[in-house]
Amino acid sequence: MKIFLAPRSNETSYKNFLSTIENGVDKSIVEPFLDDSGKKTLAPSDKIFVWGNKEAKKSSWDKMEVDDLVLFYKGREGNEKEGKFLYAGKLLYKQHSRDLGLALWPPKTGEEPWTCVFFLKDLRPIYMPMSDIQQFGKYEPSFDRIQGFMPLNEEGNKAILDKFGSADAFLSHYSVTEDKPLIESDLEEKNEITAHAEAEMLLLKIGRLLGYDTFSPNKSNEAYGEKLQDYISLKELPTRFLGGDIVRLVSQVDVMWFKDEVPKYAFEVEHSTKISSGLQRLYQLVPLSTKLFIIASGKDYYLYEKYINNDPYYKYKNDFSFREYKQLENFFKAVSEFSAINETFLK
Hints:
Number of strands: 15
Radius of gyration: 25 Å
Oligomer: single chain
CATH architecture of the largest domain: Roll
Strand order of the largest sheet: 4-7-6-5-1-8
Number of domains: 2
Distance between the termini: 62 Å
């Protein structure tokens, strides 16, 4: 697998992006200009997703092979610190053709046509900061934008494969879905110790607002200028429904919500490789049908997937959930607002 980087920032490229990538084109537009191999490859598709480069980028285009990835870059906007990659797809087919390029993207007078045409599959929205590409490829800080179609260097390709194992795992990590929001989190900007304490505080406050008894072993921690112990309603861990063998591990779970001494929800706020330890502690609660959550940076989702799909967790993976910091922050805001409205309405 190789990765290619494509800009879509200026007016022309963005217009082309909307017309032939995001919206796609009817096969009838391209079919008259396809070679026999192209017609065969694209035959199952009614709508075609296609991009192209000008002749100056043919050397990069020549390196592309089926299933290579293309990431589409958009520059920095407003108060953003950096540009980002917002769309990704896999190479399905490519064809060097002036006529095909002219049919898809008629150039302005005096401009060269897009002759290096390629078709994509498995398109999806993503959110990948430019700084991540810098780090993977070990580029200089001055490499802070994508100004022309180019391959990611070999070092970057290797680093991504070493970390994620496959193109699908890489795309899954950066994909944007309802469960994986694009918006950055305040907690993402904090160091590990601060983010951990603040996430615990939010979980404790939410638990109290929702009417649960709350427990955390981290009574001495502070966040947002307050002590966690002020929001821990249970001074001791209820053990009536916990077997003696698991109490030691369960007592170290970051935050738990109880009803009548039954652990209903349990949360581990983890960072990077510590996700494995968090899963081990939560796993002890599986027999009690407790809902189990890992709270972490979205960048660590690939690690969660790695561990949850192996024994002993795989069999019980539906009992576990991964939530990003931003989702926790949004949940806290929603619960707080509801609580305030509820008190006003019912008083």
